[in-house]
Amino acid sequence: MITPSCQRVAESIASGEFYQAAGLRRIRLWLHWCVCYACRRYRKQIETIERGAAIAFKFERATEVREAFKKKLAARLQV
Ligand SMILES: [Zn+2]
Fold this sequence. Notes:
mainly alpha; binds zinc ion
């Protein structure tokens, strides 16, 4: 298949890989995103949640929310 599945694209959006992928992987993710209404809608929802969380937790940028939650989750999993 030329583009990844909706599930794979959704996972990459939620994990942040969607924004950091390079090369052919990046092209495939973005190509899917361009033609799939559901994934575009999902990305918009995730970005809205991140902006809301950034305001609620007083982060300067929405991207800091994801990193802060990852660190907090990793710390909790190590206990
Ligand atoms: Zn999709």
